[in-house]
Amino acid sequence: MCPHKCGEPRRWKHLPPPPGFASVVSSVSPQCLGIAPNAAAATASYEELKAKRAWDLAISPAKSLPMQAFMLYMSGGGVQIFSMGIVFMLLSSPFKNLASINLAFAPFAPASSSPKSFSTLPLQKIAYLLCNLLTLALGLWKCRSMGLLPTGTGDWLAFETRGQPPEILLI
Description:
Blueprint: H1 30-33, H2 39-58, H3 60-63, H4 65-75, H5 81-99, H6 101-105, H7 122-146
Helix pairs in contact: 2-7, 4-5, 5-7
């Protein structure tokens, strides 16, 4: 018998095949038949799959932008604890993501390069950076619309210096 145990178990031989089962498909593994799988093709397809998954990870922050924008809309324009919590999470997540960018892309690194190097998967990492910057811009826009960012001249009056008043001589 084969070391891969590709023979059928005897206790299940009497059961009828399930509906839709094609009996022409062989249950014998390629190792049992002496056929070596094409290692180069398998490695190439695995590398393509890893590159595709890396692109999926790179654009994942952009995929969540519509949901986050809707959450910001539903939280309202006032400064309440709920809206502040949502804005805080929106502003902190890009920094957390960018701090662990090499760790996030390490499983998708090609076998020929270092997994935690900055030069590994550069296009995917740039796309990831840009998508996180979009998330940060959305959070800053919400802060501006809530009045939390000092954007007007009235917000800086405490730092203005007053000039000397003109002296008037009344005689």
